[in-house]
Design brief:
The structure is a single chain. This protein has one helix spanning about 60-85, and strands spanning about 5, 10-15, 25-30, 30-40, 45-50, 95. By secondary structure, it is α+β, with helices and mostly antiparallel strands. The protein has one domain (about 5-95). A hairpin with a 2-residue loop joins β1 (about 5) and β2 (about 10-15).
Amino acid sequence: MPKIFEYLGILIFFYSNEHEPIHVHAKKGEFQSKAEFYIINGNVSEIKITNIFGAPPLKGKDLKDFEVFLERYADKIVKKWVKYFVYHKEVKFEKITKRLK
């Protein structure tokens, strides 16, 4: 389970055996959500946040923080996905402790 980011206590990661569409999992405490990235002509055209079966979803401030993070870091997440799943290279973990605006 490659951990790729931590943002304000929200852990953002891939599972080692992921599938398309490109997506990341987010977890804080018992709460979990997933963000799927839809790409057209090499650009992220849409990000869709969905629930994880069997786990309560992120909500309130944590969900909003996750949404803001995704807007800012979508391209970097996609690059890390490609590096890990296409090129089979390790990805660097980054911890972000300051709130994004």
